[in-house]
Amino acid sequence: MKKKVLGAVAAAVMLVPALAASPAHAAGRVLHVWDGTGWSGISAWLYTGEDNYCTSVGAWNDGIRSARTESSGTVELWEHINCTGYSITVDSSGYSNIGPWVSAIKSHS
Question: What are the CA-CA distances from residue 19 to residues 23, 34, 43, 90 (Å)?
Answer without folding.
Answer: 9, 20, 17, 21
